[in-house]
Amino acid sequence: MANETEKMIVAAARLLPADGAVFVGTGMPLLASVLALNTHAPDLLLVYEGGGVGGKPTGRLPIQVSESLTYENGVTVGSMDYVMSLAQAGWIQYGFLGGAQIDQYGNLNTTVIGDWEKPKVRLPGSGGGADLASLCEKTIVIIGQDRKKFVKELDFLTSPGYFTGPGEREKAGLPANTGPYRVITQLGVYGFDKETKKMTLLHLFEGHTLEEVQENSSFPIAISKDWTYVTKPTDEELTTLRSLDPDGVVIA
Amino acid sequence: MTVRTEEVSSRLYGWEHPDTMREYRKKHKSFAKKDKRTTLAEAVSRGVKDGDYIAFGGMGSVRNPIAAVHEIIRQKIGDLTIGTKGSQHDWQLLAAAGNVTKAEVAYGFGDEVRGLSRPARAAAESGRLKVLSETTNAGFQWRFTAAMKGLSFYPTRSSLGTDTLHYSGSKTIIDPFTNEPVELLPACYPDVVIIHVHRADRYGNCQIDGNIAEDIELAHAGKFVIITAEEIIHDEVIQQDPALTKIPYFVVDAVVEVPYGSHPNQVPGLYSFDETHWQEWLDASLTDEDVEQYFNTYVYGTKDHYAYLEKIGGVRVLRELEKIEKKLAPYPKVARRRGK
Question: Is the Cβ of A161 closer than 8 Å to some Cβ of chain B?
Fold first, then answer.
């Protein structure tokens, strides 16, 4: 049996294309990307903020986006300028994001809970998050779902989703045809409606209900009329995933 | 909910007119081949002043000048403003010890998969540390790029329309070519920059293996630049392959040989993370009392970096970290924050 984290990682890995590049952070995004690399996408190019491009690490997975394992057996190694320029120029189709709060348009908060001047909880800040959310073609958000995280209004808009609806990213000046693509939680996989740009349930993890999806969100979530259950992780996916994190740093 | 005020967003930190910096460089930088080698204590006391804006090289917890951070703590240099450009353990130690009172934040308050930094967060949440501005990792890179290029700003399409941009000191204008909004990031010239490198010569020419983060730009942006090097090598050796020189001597003000100067962090190709020491720090970081005890043991309780290296286990531990990085020993269990 796969645990919640494993199910989310497998669902994320399946979204990644056989021919493409993905901007990764450590933790679940990295596990998802390396799982894809080891299953259906051997040519997937992993790009890290520290400058590593195309690494295929051995021994363990990187725990830092700037460590030497990020470019072991890799394509090239450069600078923050190089990899962020790749993203800005449109080379990187996918980017992974997380957050403490998300709203119905996929905008994210990783900066503060409470007021910015006098924060109740200080969070890490944008890091590369706002860059990826702005510059990658499609972003995938991995986040735990409850009413405190799925909020009507963010305390701070760190990284751009669709702002307040269709056309708003373009109006702000962000690159055309970019934005949040999928949101993966312990309950299901969400997309964004073409017309409204609002979060919409596409797939549900087995064992969960449509009621739970709404109960665990402070904003209304539309349900796609074609919604399905997420296909269970295969034995190969689970075995490979567990071999990538034998100490359970992420999946325990 | 955050109240957005224009007054906050218009503030600039670390910015200078490019002509001011041209004059500064004329006065303070030199092409003379001077032997800039000194001790860590002297380099820090000469370069780091109370109230300075400081930034460190490397990224995250990789190739950071941790020995210099310890020396700043030992010398009790205070009221520093830090640029947390994808920064982790280096500045979080300073926040825990109380040396920094202000920060411009791209990434701070966390150690990636290891967890969040309680001491740094407590400093911000209690008001002991004032966050001056927000930016992004690319944002800080390009602020230093602007400084290196002698420009007052650098343009980007990142973060337009966000609160991050609103609190960044950036300005949005209409790009005269596309007629669409574009963000201008203000140049950033830290008062003092400390960068840890693999090798340097006595004049300050530096070799860095592997990823460079934004260290080339940072070295050209800093007003006073301290290099700590794993090894000082002969300048004739450096000259044999100029393509390997990532930072040229003329931007550098002081050079110190500091072996294992990034411990407990990694230096790519040389040594890995000291997970045992990391776990000790992460456990200590949970209470103010244990943080104080940690500093008493490893920083105030050691007269210099060499005494520190003995305290953390000496050659036996350091050689093991080298073996791990060279794949001659297995990776140990990754240290993570335990408890709340």
Answer: no
Record the pTM: 0.97
Domain holding B242, by residue range, is 15-152+187-325
Of B112, B137, B167, the CB nearest to A26: B112
**Of A248, A95, A100, whose CA–CA distance to B109 is shortest?**
A100
Q: At residue B1, does pLDDT exceed 60? A: no
**Domain membership flag for residue A249:** no
**A207 located within any domain:** yes
The domain that holds A202 is classified in CATH as: 3.40.1080.10
Q: Report the CATH number that the domain containing residue B63 is assigned in CATH.
A: 3.40.1080.10
User: How many domains does the structure of chain B reveal?
Assistant: 1
User: What separation in angstroms does the CA of B3 have from each of A115, A154, B166?
Assistant: 7, 12, 11
Instruction: Please check whether residue B166 lies inside any domain of the structure.
Output: no
The 10s digit of each residue's pLDDT in A118-144 is 999 999 999 999 999 999 999 999 999
Query: B258 lies in a domain?
Result: yes
User: Is residue B2 pLDDT above 80, yes or no?
Assistant: no
Number of cross-chain residue pairs from A and B with Cβ atoms under 8 Å apart: 222
Q: Which residue has the higher pLDDT, B99 or A247?
A: B99
Number of domains forming the structure of chain A:
1
Give chain A positions within 8 Å (CB) of B160.
134, 160, 172-174
Residue range of the domain that includes A180: 4-244
